[in-house]
Design brief:
The complex is a heterotrimer of chains A (457), B (289) and C (313). Chain A is 42% helix and 12% strand. Chain A has 457 residues and is of the alpha/beta class. In chain A, strand 4 (142-143) and strand 5 form a beta hairpin. The two termini of chain C are 25 Å apart. The chains are: A alpha/beta (457), B mainly alpha (289), C mainly alpha (313). Chains B and C meet through helix 1, helix 4, helix 5, helix 6 and helix 8 of B and helix 1, helix 2, helix 4, helix 5 and helix 6 of C.
Chain lengths: 457, 289, 313
């Protein structure tokens, strides 16, 4: 049974940290409801935020909404560690029971589209107020012409470059802070910040003993940065209708060659790195650059302040077809077996509005990115430090000329998700750079794997 | 005389060599087996800054700290995990032992229709991996309203423990001489008297071995609690430590290691207590037999 | 349970009398009691294993969207897929080599423990059991931390002996060895303790008799120890083989199947295909693929054990 965070008892804003860590267990001892019996009971399973305070923010927002609407909002936080959230989603979908609202990681709304409540009405009202949603969120959240889940604020991240200012200057001769200042303008040399420049810098830093920390395994950090590189070359392996576009694809070949070139300048064990290995490479001071949300810098600030003070987040390098940044969103979806679909929609609309979004972003040191481009100007990104302004360029700003990317888009999500989770793009590179296959052999393998995916539908 | 002395001498030399080899292999095994736990202990005593510092010997602690243990033990949630683990494990062990001792007694001593198939079939249940079983089990546990409850775990853990324990017990019961129970039957003992007065005491080492197995397996279970428990106040230790100390792509290594070592304590205590009994029982059983 | 047993025992006597009738009555009573005693076991197996397993088989016959029957399509697709055959090969390599190593190390250590004076055995036993006591989900994290490319403490030790840094999890063969190493480390103590128990129950008189006959230590091992331990060896090996085939935690934490799928085993691959990629039927098919082969293997081993049990009794 999900714990019930009573609306009235949880309104206490000054919840001590310990109680927050308790996951609300202390507050679950329900105090008598002051405003009479609540009429609705909504059970939410949100993503267990890597910043514990992030959970606290969501809990407080839910309590606030519940009090206003005479509802009890029970909040569970489900971790992504050990894929617990995916196990929970799979099991609840199978047994058609569980929470009303769940946090769905990137591909899950598409996988469970038929079991999710249509939220076109909510998204209509939100976009009328705040403008367009970032395109990658639309690709993942809008299935067969309808929104099946609402792009969430809490947990949604991007993966721009986190650069060591000193090492980049010393070994690659690039003053990254001048290039991408903490202002709404591009600095000198920003127009040269492309994959070519990047590959040269990777080589120079590697020679100096500070190789870039770019994972090439099967976890999201790896698949996302390679996906962003491919996207910036316009290199698709599958089109919207599921047709395989590997053979004779010059753009794909160019992207593969660039990626192999970069991969040869990486440490020899990046093939097994997970999402935390690149953080450790940065924090230890061994790496001049990683692609990561600000969590790596936050850990560095705590454990190795000298390293943390030299970190600067900048956009991903651009390619022939533009600049793309890896995007890994969460969605809030409502199961169609829920009996409180109306109130659940209202709650999600409340959690998505600008004030709520800012609360969530603030408590996560700027980590959470709202789906609406118009919200990319919260002051938190200018104020966080040291060095102050280090995450200014973390969300997409107008002068970046960047778009969000999801690896294997625009393939139909049902197939893209399989390619994504089997990390076909990093394995393609690994076959060439680690196992010394030729580009043609590796592309042949990719085609066969994609055919297997297509065959299963 | 000379020959006898020679044989005697070579026997003694052989014994001595055997002893030396034994100690050398044991030492080597202990060093290798304990390397990770020792490193875990070392890590748990380091500050976060020291851990992330690449300079110097990683096997030394320069500024030892108990902060990670303090944080963990000062966290009421961690004590809840501990209590949940103990509760689930003890109940599971009891349920397991009752089920498997009864069944093993019946399967070892009483032939009945399908008993052979059942004895073999019990073991085959392990062939269906828990990474697959959790989906249908979620429906069953959910249908009984036991999701997010330690009781749900008590319900499903026996699938991990019962088959092996039953097999161990069948083996032990089968090795008890038939004359013993025939004598008892002639004396007019009932089956229940036979089980309680003869089989359980004689097979006590086996029962303890099975208990130890059931204890360890349910203490360490991971997939089922991951799938069935999402509220922290019902989590057992294994999943609780991992889910509260690994946050996204940041790991609280010191606390994880401290938690892992603390999680190993109860089994160590149980073993220290039961092992002597176990071995003593074995040797006693052997001389009797 | 005792209640029903006494009830059955004091059931009214039938009309038959004499030795023959008594025996038949005994047999009938016996089977009823036996059935009642195994009832809890049957409930657990049917309700919590057989039914879910049947459901899993049903799942594996569906299409990806799980809204239609697809027959053996999932299996056909798997058989045509090179990555899957890689997984089959690796699972066998992983399980067989790990179980062999565990059994040999366990056997050796049990022997060594058995040899030394009883007084000292306790502390050695205690230390050697520690790997099996730490929940593997947590101890694997410890290993992972030792393997970590940036902070590897193992490489630090190797560096003392001027051995170049090993890419523990980055290079395919090293990654396989690393995974197997952790599994052996975790499982060997279990074998050791099972074998030690078996060794202790071999009657000392047999060895004494053999010594009088002038048997060498190899002959003693070959003709006394091994036959006496045959059952316990079969059961532990079989159990460990099945469990190692289904192992999930270790590969998942250490490599997640990488590099290039070269460390994937059934459980992790099934998880990746089924849960992560939203294709539950194919995940179920992966999990069920080895079931027939293992079942046949298990059947023969268990039949042997059963036969010996009956001979002993």
């Amino acid at each position: 049974m999900p714990e019930n965070v009573n609306a009235t008892s949880c309104n206490d804003v000054s919840l001590p940290r310990r109680a927050a860590l308790l996951g609300g267990a202390a507050t679950a001892l329900t105090a008598p409801a002051v405003f009479g019996q609540p009429t609705t009971n909504i059970r939410c399973g949100f993503w267990d935020h890597w910043v514990p305070a992030g959970n606290d923010a969501l809990r407080r927002l839910c309590a606030q909404w519940g009090e206003r609407n005479r509802a009890t909002v029970g909040v569970d936080f489900i971790t992504s560690v050990g894929n617990q959230n995916l196990l929970t989603i799979a099991a609840q979908a199978q047994s058609r029971s569980g929470h009303d609202i769940l946090s769905f990681p990137a591909w899950e709304p598409a996988s469970h589209a038929r079991m999710l409540v249509n939220v076109d009405d909510v998204m209509g009202r939100l976009t009328a107020k705040y403008g367009a949603v970032t395109p990658a969120a639309e690709y993942l959240g809008k299935q067969d012409g309808r929104w099946v889940a609402i792009p969430a604020v809490s947990g949604t991240q991007m993966k721009p470059a986190c650069v060591r200012i000193d090492l980049m200057q010393q070994h690659a001769g690039i003053d990254i802070r001048a290039m991408w200042p903490a202002e709404n303008r591009a600095g000198p040399g920003a127009d040269t910040w492309n994959w070519e420049t990047f590959a040269v810098a990777a080589e120079k830093c590697n020679r100096a003993g500070f190789a870039f920390g770019l994972p090439m395994g099967s976890f999201t950090d790896a698949v996302d940065w390679v996906g962003a590189l491919f996207a910036s070359y316009g290199a698709n392996v599958m089109d919207e209708r599921g047709g395989i576009t590997v053979r004779g694809n010059a753009k794909l070949r160019a992207a593969v060659e660039m990626c192999v070139r970069i991969a040869r300048q990486l440490p020899n064990d990046v093939w097994a790195w997970d999402d935390a290995s690149n953080n450790r490479a940065l924090i230890s001071g061994r790496s001049a650059l990683v692609f990561n949300p600000p969590s790596a810098w936050v850990s560095a600030r705590r454990d190795q302040p000298a390293v943390g003070a030299q970190c600067w987040t900048v956009p991903v390098p651009s390619g022939p077809e533009g600049r793309f940044v890896g995007y890994l969103p969460y969605f809030w979806g409502i199961w169609n077996f829920s009996r409180v679909q109306g109130p659940a929609k209202e709650l999600l609309e409340f959690l998505s509005d600008r004030a709520s979004a800012e609360v969530q972003t603030n408590t996560s040191a700027g980590y959470d990115i709202p789906p609406f481009l118009s919200m990319n100007d919260f002051p938190v990104w200018s104020n966080e430090g040291p060095p102050v302004g280090t995450v200014f360029n973390y969300p997409i700003k107008a002068h970046h000329n960047a778009r969000t990317s999801v690896a294997f888009a625009p393939a139909p999500p049902a197939m893209a998700v399989q390619a994504y989770n089997q990390a076909l793009n990093t394995k393609l590179i690994a076959r060439i750079a680690q196992a010394n296959e030729t580009v043609d052999q590796a592309l042949g393998w990719l085609e066969r794997e994609l055919n297997t995916i297509r065959r299963g539908g | 005389m000379n020959l006898a002395a020679n044989i005697h001498g070579s026997l003694r030399a052989e014994r001595r060599w055997a002893l030396i080899i034994a100690y050398v292999s044991l030492c080597a095994a202990v060093v290798i087996f304990l390397l990770p736990p020792v490193y875990m202990l070392i890590t748990s005593l380091k500050t976060n800054a020291e851990m992330s510092n690449l300079q110097g010997n990683p096997w030394l602690v320069r500024s030892p700290t108990l902060e990670h243990y303090g944080t963990i033990l000062g966290n009421p949630l961690f004590l809840t995990f501990f209590w949940n683990s103990i509760k689930v494990t003890v109940l599971t062990v009891i349920v397991t032992m009752v089920i498997s001792v009864l069944a093993a007694f019946a399967l070892a001593r009483m032939r009945f229709w399908g008993s052979q198939a059942l004895a073999t079939g019990v073991f085959l249940t392990y062939l269906v991996p828990d990474t697959l079983l959790f989906i249908p089990l979620y429906q069953i546990v959910g249908g009984l309203g036991l999701l997010n409850s330690t009781w749900g775990l008590v319900l499903v853990y026996p699938t991990l423990t019962v088959p092996f324990c039953t097999w161990i017990m069948i083996g032990y019961f089968a090795s008890i001489p038939k004359e013993l129970d025939e004598a008892a039957l002639i004396d007019g003992a009932t089956w229940s008297q036979m089980l309680l007065k003869i089989f359980i005491p004689v097979a006590l080492p086996g029962i303890i071995a099975a208990t130890i197995f059931a204890f360890t397996v349910s203490w360490a279970a991971f997939v089922y609690p991951t799938a069935f428990i999402t509220t922290p106040d019902q989590m057992p230790l294994t999943i609780g430590v991992v889910s509260t100390l690994v946050r996204g792509d940041t790991f609280a290594w010191g606390q994880i290691m401290a938690g892992a070592l603390l999680a190993a304590l109860p089994p160590v205590v149980v073993y220290a207590f039961l092992m002597d009994y176990y071995i003593a029982g074995l040797t006693a059983g052997a001389t009797k037999g | 349970m005792p209640d029903s047993m006494t009830a059955a025992v004091s059931a009214p006597r039938g009309p038959e009398s004499g030795a023959g009738g008594g025996l038949r009555r005994l047999a009938r009573r016996r089977s009823t009691i036996a059935f009642l005693m195994t009832l809890p076991l049957i409930c657990v197996i049917v309700g919590l294993v057989a039914y879910p397993a049947a459901y899993a088989v049903y799942l594996s016959t569906l299409n990806r969207r799980m809204d239609g029957f697809a027959g053996l399509l999932q299996f056909e697709i798997l058989v045509d897929n090179e990555t899957f055959w890689l997984v089959v090969w690796q699972s066998c390599l992983f399980a067989i080599s790990a179980v062999l190593a565990k059994a040999l190390i366990g056997f050796w250590l049990a022997h060594m423990l058995h040899h030394i004076p009883t007084k000292g055995q306790r502390k050695w036993r205690g230390m050697l059991l520690i790997p099996w006591v730490i929940p593997p989900a947590l101890s694997t994290l410890g290993w992972w931390w030792m393997y970590d490319p940036t902070y590897s403490s193992l490489n630090w030790i190797l560096a003392i002996f001027a051995v170049p840094a090993v890419p523990w999890l980055g290079e395919p063969w090293w990654a396989r060895i690393s995974v197997i190493m952790v599994n052996v480390w975790y499982g060997a103590p279990f074998f050791m303790i099972m074998y030690l128990a078996a060794l202790k129950s071999v009657p000392e008189q047999l060895y004494e008799a053999a010594a009088i006959d002038g048997a060498t230590s190899w002959q003693r091992l070959r003709h006394i120890t091994l036959p006496m331990m045959q059952n316990i060896i079969s059961i532990t090996v079989l159990f460990s083989l099945i469990v190692t085939f289904a192992n999930y935690d270790i590969v998942r934490v250490l490599t997640n199947g990488g590099p290039r799928d070269l460390t994937h085993v059934f459980a992790t691959y099934a998880f990746q295909v089924g849960i992560l990629s939203g294709n539950i039927p194919r995940g179920a098919a992966v999990s069920l693929f080895m079931l027939p082969a293992l079942a046949v293997f298990a059947y023969f081993i268990l039949r042997g054990v059963n036969r010996r049990n009956r001979e002993m009794a």
